[in-house]
Amino acid sequence: MARRYDSEDSRRRILSACVKLFIEKGYHETKMAEILKAADVTNSTFYNIFRTKDGVLLDLTEFMFANQFEMAGHIMNGCKDSVKLYAVETSIQMTLAELNEKLREVYVEAYSNPKIAEYIYQQTSSKLSVIFAGYLPGYTESDFYELEVGSSGIMRGYMSRPCDKYFTLDRKLERFLEMSLRAYNIPESERTDVIDYIKKMDICATANAVMQKLFNALAMKYEFELKDNAGLD
Fold this sequence. Notes:
11 helices
């Protein structure tokens, strides 16, 4: 019984240390030695539980993606338009990457890692099959899975490239939504309406509010305190 408790306690401390360091320093700048010191565990203990940082990243990704959809729903304030909800959630996700380089690293790494990307495909495709079923009658969840693999590739590509004065955030969001909504067979008039809806939002302010809530939720779940303004650059 004591051994089981020790393992669970070590797992909690490793998660707490890793998530805190990922937010404050970035995924790639977080070194294993720092994790072991902050979590007060040995290398063998870490390996037995997670093996690599990727194992921790999967746990973090699960939490972040679950909370993003929920937060997007709150922002929509009870709106029943599921296509607009999809547009808001994906736009917030891409905007978060522009507002915070540490989050950009986490997202891009998650979409690049085969195991974590597979989790994203499976979780998202089930939601997409509900949102877009009316536009693609006869499509199975497997069909939506295949579409999600493609749209996730676009998402990763856009997130990994920072905006500049030529490829602005507004332009990036419009491009992504136009391509993804076309893939899900949304009529042109409705695509235009959804994209205009996003353009009228203060997406940076909205995403910043979501980031603050997300970091607070992470701090509560993983039981740590962030340094002042850590990860909020």
